[in-house]
Amino acid sequence: MIEFTGERVIPGEVNDDLWAEHAARYAFALRYAHHSRALDLGCGSGYGVAEIAKRARFAVGIDSSHEAVAYAQAHYQRANVRFLQASATSLPFADRSFELITAFEVIEHLAEWPDLVKEAARVLQAHGVFLVSTPNKLYYTQSRGEHGPNPFHVHEFEFEEFRDVLARSFPNVVIFLQNRQESFTFAPAAADASGPEAHLPLAALRADEANFFVAVCSAAPPGDARPFVYVPRAANLLREREQHIALLQSELAQTKKWLDELIADHKALQDAHLEQTHHLEEQNRWALDLEAKWRSAMDRVTALQDELKSEQANAARIVDQYNAKISELEQENRARAQWAIDTETRLSAGLAAKSAELSEAVRLLDRAEATVIERTEWAQNLQKRIDFLETQLAMVRQSRWVRLGRIAGVGPRVKE
Fold it and tell me: Which of 61, 185, 310, 385 is placed for a possible disulfide with 43 were both Cys, Cβ 3.0 to 4.6 Å?
């Protein structure tokens, strides 16, 4: 299903009036379609090609939209119908290929609209007819009103411009004025109502008031230039008017309901607005109080900033004094460091001499210690000999023979 955008007519997707407006043009084209080779430029969904094919020998529909061509091929397959994707400004057909060409509501959509007219003249046979329609710019602009220009239209035509453009390529141009008009029909109940006799007051038709222009263009004078009336089967205007009135009444009731709801909503909005106003006044008072506090705080901040500047100045002076003292101490430290270096040098020299003296003293001590050790060992050996001799002496004193000799006055005198 292709999407209905408001420009491309899709059967069953548009209201009866819009459908009748487009279908009427193809009904008008049938008077020129008998046993012809027909071409429909900008065929859209394809319903018009199928309508022309009822009388034509062969009918071709082209459209630049792939979706539109696919829809037409799916819904309007006929033995004498073909659809293809192509541009209306560059037709893929040989010269003099068709006897009837239609281009309904296409030319105003094209930036290269002169090429459409030239291409139609090229592929149309000498006795053929080119039917082209477009909205009346004067009426269309007024009818759209506040909606503004149609975004799908590139170039719209007034009557004289439309006629002159077509006359450059076709010697004969007859422009029909298409309008939706109220009418009264008289048709037998049991008979076919198609093709009725029409009484059309031609003096009432004005080009500047027409809804659409439908031009019949040809190289030779067209065979039928009589007025044409299309009465759709649903065109019982009185019944439609009654239904429309009923619809309006229903819409009016719905509108009244919406209006009552809107009034209630408005009342609720007023109450909410009043409440919001009170809240806003409270917020304003709070804001004023907050502003006063803020200004007081700002004054305090200013005072603190002044105090800070004073303190910073004092701190700067103290820092300068500290820096001067530090410089003085650094000079004193350098002097003391030099004294320490000199003292270390002197101490190093004295220590070297003292080290030599200490080394000699240690050597002498080592010699004295060796002597002491030697004398100690000699004393210890001597003491051992003394101890041994005392032991021997004690043994001698205790000997029986010594006692007898002492008694007899014989032998050595051993002192006890």
Answer: 61
Specify if 289 maps to a domain.
Answer: no
Alpha-carbon distance of 397 to 403, in angstroms, equals: 7
Residue 278 lies in a domain: no
Q: How far apart are CA 300 and CA 307, in angstroms?
A: 10
| Residues ≥6 apart with Cβ < 8 Å to 334 | none
Task: With CA atoms as reference, report the closest residue to 110 among 95, 122, 98, 120.
Answer: 120
- pTM assigned to the model: 0.56
Residues with Cβ within 8 Å of 326's Cβ and at least 6 positions away in sequence, in order, are none
Task: Answer yes or no: are the C-beta atoms of 22 and 46 closer than 8 Å.
Answer: no
What gap in Å lies between CA 116 and CA 41, rounded to an integer? 9
Q: Per residue in 221-266, pLDDT tens?
A: 876 778 888 777 655 555 666 666 887 888 888 888 888 888 988 8
The CA R_g of the chain, rounded to the nearest whole Å, is 66
Whole-number Å distance between alpha carbons of 189 and 40: 35
